[in-house]
Amino acid sequence: MEQTQQHFRAIVEGARDYAIFMLDPQGCVITWNPGAGQIHGYRTEEITGQHFSLFFLQEDRERGKPEHELSIASAEGRYEDEGWRIRKDGSRFWANVLITALYDQQRQIIGYSKLTRDLTERRRAEEALLAELSVSVLPGLKIQQMLHAVASSMQRIVAHDYASITLLDQSKNVLHSYILSAAGDSGPEMELSVAPESSPEAAVLHTHEALFLPSLQDSSFPQDALRHALSSGIHAAWWLPLVHEGRVAGALCIGVRNPKTLEHVSRHTLTQMAAQIALTIQGINAARQLSAQTQKLKEEKRYLEEELRTEYSFEEIVGNGESLRRVLKQVETVAPTDATTLILGETGTGKELIARAIHNLSARDGHTFVKVNCSSIPTGLLESELFGHEKGAFTGAIQQRIGRLELAHQGTLFLDEIGDLPLDLQPKLLRALQEKEIERLGGRRTIPVDFRLLAATHRDLARMVKDGQFRSDLYYRLKVFPILLPPLRQRREDIPELVNYFVAKHARRMNKHIEEIPEPVMSALVRWHWPGNIRELENFLERAVILTRGPLLRAPLSELQELNIETDEPQSTLEAAERAHILQVLRDCDGVIAGAGGAAERLGLKRTTLNSRMKKLGIERREYL
Question: How far does the chain reach from its first CA to its final CA, in angstroms?
Answer without folding.
Answer: 129
